[in-house]
Amino acid sequence: MARATGWGALIIPAVILCSLQMALAQQQQQSQPQIQQVTPPSQHGEGPHWDCGQNVLYYVDISGQMLHRYDPASKDLKSVRFDGPVSPVVPVLGTLDQLVVGVGTDLVLVTVDWGARGVEPHVNQTITLLASVDRDKPDNRFNDGKADRAGRLWIGTMGPEPVVGQVTLGRGSLYRFQAANTSVRGSEHMDVEKMLSPVDISNGIVWNDIETLMYYIDTPSGRIDVFDFDPDKGTISNGRPAFDLRANNITGHPDGMTMDVDGNLWVACFDGGQVIKVDPVAGRLLQQVPIPAARVTSVVFGGRDLSTLYVTTMNKGLTPDQLQQQPAAGSVFAVTGLGTTGHRPGSRKAVVRR
């Protein structure tokens, strides 16, 4: 009897330990991010914007001169071509068919009839020029940009890049675009103010939930900076470093970024093959999510519950061997299982009439 009791004392903890290990393994498996390729490759995927009203993802192919619209529910992907490098794209508040699009260094307002599934989209021939910048630098182009809560657009420029990674530095600026006083459709234009200059490669922009801080990336700096933001005046001040990728031994260069509901930043690492999660207040790296493409360009939370992180990538400039190793490079990837969501109502929209 004593021996039987002894075996029982050994067996019960072993069973409990085995159950705990299995539960832990299942939990770890469930918490691992799931990554899925959701679009075919493009040359230079960038600028993802989730439209919560229509539950679709807009993004661009900068060098391919294309604007794309992806519907996750139907898997429908539609595209519109422009005459020049395209970036960024921001839907217009209060409309279902109007978008603000950067083409070169022109900011234009376009009306697109996307049509039913399987029907080619139609672009209205009336394209309104809202503003132009960097007229003294004809080889410049727009890069990343977003709208703040008031519908003002913050868009940066960069110098020419004849070879991927070889940019003429010091030629860019960060601009703020605000709707001029017009309420007539067809007569829109935007007032422009230069907010930062010179800039090397103007990239990721995002605000905290109450818009008292603006986070900003000038890629060659290797860091994320933070500015005090006045949401009423639309001004920035007191810029300082928030997180340095080099100091934290992170592979890749900071590119586009977004923020989750917990106030953490998700940052695309160009030539790093990953997205990183950063606590910008503590200046601490929280997570690294590998992406099956080296040139990760930008990120945005989307999906009906904003729990999917859409990741754009690039295949331009890759060698044949690199393309063989990264066949999905240039695609959009959907990352789920991250345990967080984006801010509601998601990506902000542009105001072009007041």
TrEMBL record:
EC number, UniProt record:
3.1.1.17
Keywords, comma-separated and alphabetical: Calcium, Cytoplasm, Hydrolase, Metal-binding, Signal, Zinc
Chief localization: cytoplasm
Q: Which Pfam families does the entry link to?
A: SGL (PF08450)
* Free-text cofactor note: Binds 1 divalent metal cation per subunit.
Which amino acid positions bind a divalent metal cation, per UniProt? E46, N203, D255
Q: In which domain of life is the source organism classified?
A: Eukaryota
Span of domain SMP-30/Gluconolactonase/LRE-like region: 45-314
Question: Which InterPro entries does the UniProt record give?
Answer: 6-blade_b-propeller_TolB-like, Regucalcin, SGL, SMP-30
Q: Which GO terms describe its biological process?
A: L-ascorbic acid biosynthetic process
Q: Where in the cell?
A: Cytoplasm
**GO CC annotation terms, alphabetical:** cytoplasm
GO function term, MF aspect, one? enzyme regulator activity
**Active site positions:** D255 (proton donor/acceptor)
Signal peptide stretch: 1-25
The protein's required cofactors: Ca(2+); Zn(2+); Mn(2+); Mg(2+)
Q: Which Gene3D superfamilies match?
A: TolB, C-terminal domain (2.120.10.30)
Residues given in the record as substrate binding sites: R141, N143, E161
Q: Which reaction does it catalyse?
A: D-glucono-1,5-lactone + H2O = D-gluconate + H(+)
Q: Which PANTHER family match?
A: REGUCALCIN
Supply the name of the protein. Regucalcin
Q: What organism does the record attribute this protein to?
A: Frankliniella fusca
The lineage, from the top, is:
Eukaryota, Metazoa, Ecdysozoa, Arthropoda, Hexapoda
